[in-house]
């Protein structure tokens, strides 16, 4: 086997470790963000707007950072982006008003949009034959980050009596570690003589490209299916924690444990099951099965009864939310908390069972659809089609929290899951006939 067929792990692993450390900081914040906003009396609809702030800025900032890294090198741009993330997490930790939380998430979205830079560094460090293996390690780092990040956040909350600022400060520590790793360990992958060349230049996805992507007769249906799935899942991700609070009376620590459960399921699917399932059933059947599982899980989750867990205390969660705010006035969002009594494990059991098909469905869909996209695209345009797929995923992460928060607030807490499950169910016949 020649060198072009072997992945240079010595060169790749520092980049993978930097991604993992970056993700620890990000995923420590995701489970507690709705609780943070609730503590400043933000309702579910406004939480949806807050959830959309980060991916919106990421959508705008990602191509810009990628382009700057083509011009000035990966290391310099990555370090600057990480400094911005570090500052945004410190700002989040010191926040004493809702506008500061918004500002922190906007700043983190702009400067945290460094994935294109990292992916470019992987591309610089691999050959065409080893590139998929290198990018696969990026996916593995994402999966592990979504397990360990929420777990660490939960541990910090327990140790600090559910102080929402503490995970933000802890996450800033990981961001600082990432800066140090980039500065002293990461080696530049794009030499000066290759910077600014046409084959390395990163450009933003234009509206014309987005429209052309969905109109393409070969790949358009796959992009539409992926986008709708992510719009539904984006609503699920952000409304999951408020739903836990409303239905089960779970506080921020409980939410982190639930997020760890979902992360483990996703890693099991994407790291261990996706390959044997693909070999046995093929991508088309996996896409259809993924939508069936996702729809089933969402509709089952909507049936979760309002049954607080046995250790629920309305007074304790009220105090937890109240302690973060500087105002001494009663928070109106405390009305979302369930009444005490009628406690048990049935609601928790239904919710956890529902999350198994949700995690399996989502874990199957994204890699399988991307695989089909590459198979139905000319080899010279694979990078472009995957960039287009990533852009539509980002748009899904923007629109998902917006509609999910509004449905939760103005219809019913279960509405994002009922509507999302129904929409995904309607995609099944479309997938059967068109994929």
Draw up the topology in text.
Layout: H1 9-29, H2 33-38, H3 44-72, H4 74-94, H5 98-111, H6 115-124, H7 131-159, H8 165-184, H9 207-215, H10 220-248, H11 252-302, H12 314-324, H13 346-375, H14 382-410, H15 415-434
Helix pairs in contact: 1-7, 1-8, 3-4, 3-5, 3-6, 3-10, 3-14, 4-5, 4-8, 7-8, 7-11, 9-10, 10-11, 10-13, 10-14, 10-15, 11-13, 11-15
Structure description:
The chain is mainly alpha-helical and 435 residues long. The chain folds into two domains: 1-184, Up-down Bundle (Growth Hormone, Chain: A), CATH 1.20.1250.20; 208-435, Up-down Bundle (Growth Hormone, Chain: A), CATH 1.20.1250. Helix content is 76%, strand content 0%. Helix 4 (74-94) packs antiparallel against helix 8 (165-184). 50% of the residues are buried. The model has no long low-confidence stretch (mean pLDDT 84).
Entry summary:
With 435 residues, the chain is an all-alpha fold.
Give the oligomer, counting copies of the same chain as homo and different chains as hetero: single chain
- The arrangement of helices and strands along the chain is HHHHHHHHHHHHHHH
**Share of residues in strands:** under 5%
The chain-level structural class is: mainly alpha
- Architecture (CATH level 2) name of the largest domain: Up-down Bundle
């Amino acid at each position: 086997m020649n060198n072009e067929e072997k992945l240079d792990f010595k060169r790749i692993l520092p980049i993978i470790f930097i991604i993992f450390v970056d993700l620890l900081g990000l995923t420590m914040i995701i489970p507690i963000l709705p609780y943070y906003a609730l503590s400043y009396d933000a309702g579910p609809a406004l939480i949806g707007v807050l959830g959309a702030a980060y991916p919106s800025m990421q959508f705008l900032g990602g191509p810009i950072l990628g382009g700057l890294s083509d011009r000035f090198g990966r290391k310099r741009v990555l370090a600057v982006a990480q400094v911005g993330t570090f500052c945004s997490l410190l700002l989040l930790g010191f926040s004493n008003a809702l506008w500061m939380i918004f500002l922190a998430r906007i700043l983190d979205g702009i400067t945290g949009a460094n994935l294109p830079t990292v992916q470019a560094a992987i591309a610089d460090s691999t050959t065409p034959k080893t590139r998929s293996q290198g990018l696969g390690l990026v996916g593995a780092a994402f999966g592990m980050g979504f397990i360990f990040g929420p777990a660490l956040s939960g541990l910090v909350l327990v140790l600090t009596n559910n102080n929402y600022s503490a995970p933000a400060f802890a996450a800033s520590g990981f961001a600082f570690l990432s800066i140090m790793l980039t500065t002293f360990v990461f080696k530049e992958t794009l030499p000066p003589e290759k910077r600014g060349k046409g084959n390395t230049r990163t450009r933003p996805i234009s509206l014309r490209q987005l429209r052309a992507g969905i109109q393409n007769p070969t790949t358009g249906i796959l992009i539409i299916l992926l986008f709708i799935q992510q719009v539904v899942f984006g609503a699920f991700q952000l409304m999951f924690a408020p739903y836990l609070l409303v239905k089960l009376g779970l506080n921020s620590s409980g939410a982190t444990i639930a997020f760890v459960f979902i992360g483990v399921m996703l890693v099991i699917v994407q790291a261990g099951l996706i390959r044997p399932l693909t070999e046995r059933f093929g991508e088309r059947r996996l896409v259809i099965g993924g939508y069936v599982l996702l729809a089933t899980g969402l509709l089952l989750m909507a049936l979760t009864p309002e049954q607080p867990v046995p250790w629920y205390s309305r007074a304790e969660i009220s105090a937890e939310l109240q302690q973060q705010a500087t105002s001494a006035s009663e928070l109106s969002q405390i009305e979302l908390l369930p009444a005490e009594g009628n406690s048990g494990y049935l609601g928790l059991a239904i919710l956890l069972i529902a999350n198994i098909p949700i995690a399996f469905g989502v874990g199957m869909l994204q890699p399988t659809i991307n695989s089909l996209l590459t198979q139905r695209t000319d080899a010279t345009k694979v990078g472009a089609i995957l960039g287009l797929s990533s852009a539509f995923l980002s748009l899904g992460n923007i629109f998902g929290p917006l509609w999910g928060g509004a449905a939760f607030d103005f219809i019913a807490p279960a509405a994002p899951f009922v509507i999302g499950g129904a929409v995904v169910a309607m995609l099944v016949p479309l997938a059967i006939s068109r994929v």
